[in-house]
Amino acid sequence: MTKDYSYSDYVGDPFRATHALGDLLGRGALRLFLGAGASCGFGLPDWKTLIARVTKRDTDSAFVAGLKDKDTMELGRLVNKVDDGSESYIDLVRASLYRDASPDLLVQLQQSRLLLAIGALMTGSCRGRIESVVTYNYDDLLEQYLWMLGYSACRRVRPSDLSTRSDVVVDYVHGCVPQQKKTGDGAPQIVLSAQSFIERRADIDEGWPASVIAGLMSKIGLFVGLSGNDTTMIEQITRAKNKGFTTRLDDYNAYWLLTPDAFDRNGEMILKAGSCPIRLDKDVIPDLLLAVCRHAAA
């Protein structure tokens, strides 16, 4: 497939990307990557607020204000003291994550335009659909939404987990902390503290980093709700690109849907990684995704 438009065209009119993304969706060539922006609006905290809650300092206004100047590793170090890998630690993260979320999110899920659009990408049949999702979130809101629609999801928390028969495979690369704890769940491994992040990076040639890179060899990424501030994903795309696996002359390695602020901060870096940043106002992102679905069905 030859690109009808490119990055410079999308700067002027982001909806020109509908053609490229719709063609990829129709061919089953997209893999969806989700970040915290896909779970906003349900009472879930952003990452820095989660850090403040987990460290039990969310009522310390000076501490909270200081978090905005800290980078990923500095924020993670704050959690090192409480991350003992125990079930109690995971319970603390769960309580901090879902503290302001409704115990029953059914009504809210029904009203989310973004989840509607994301769900539409996955629930096609004849026109092609996205069958695999990589999420950097801990929450299981996407699974709850798919269940509400009557679709099954295969949850994978380790690269070695089997992709069993399901409508959608959801890979939780940072671990999964479901809203409802089930007896016998134990303590899942999550990446939140600096130590857990270092351990994950140590497996860059194995584990999830290698799995994500392998996924980008066979599919083109579509990134939603990821600002690019955490450069881990950009590093992995660049790593794959430098190996020559995902250098395609007829398309980008991935398409990133970015809000204006995120685009201004990280768009150039994403473009250098062989990916296409697309600048969109937050409330317009669902419109673009639904237009992609319609193009694929045409």
Strand order of the largest sheet: 3-4-2-1-5-6-7
> Pairing-aware structural class of the strands and helices?
alpha/beta
Tally of DSSP helical segments: 14
- Unreliably modeled segments: none
Number of strands: 7
* Helix content, binned percent: 40-55%
Radius of gyration: 19 Å
Distance between the termini: 17 Å
Strand content: 5-15%
The major pleated sheet works out as: 7 strands, parallel
Notes on the protein architecture:
- The chain has about 300 residues and is of the alpha/beta class.
- It has 14 helices and 7 strands.
- The protein has helices at about 5-10, 15-25, 45-55, 60-65, 70-75, 85-95, 105-110, 115-120, 140-150, 195-200, 205-220, 230-245, 260-270, 285-295, and strands at about 30-35, 130-135, 155, 170, 220-225, 255-260, 275-280.
- Strands 3-4-2-1-5-6-7 form a 7-stranded parallel β-sheet, sandwiched between helices.
- Helix 13 links the parallel strand 6 and strand 7 (about 275-280).
- The longest helix has 13 residues, at about 260-270.
- The protein is globular, with a radius of gyration of 19 Å.
- It starts with 6 loop residues before the first helix and ends with a helix.
- The mean pLDDT is about 90.
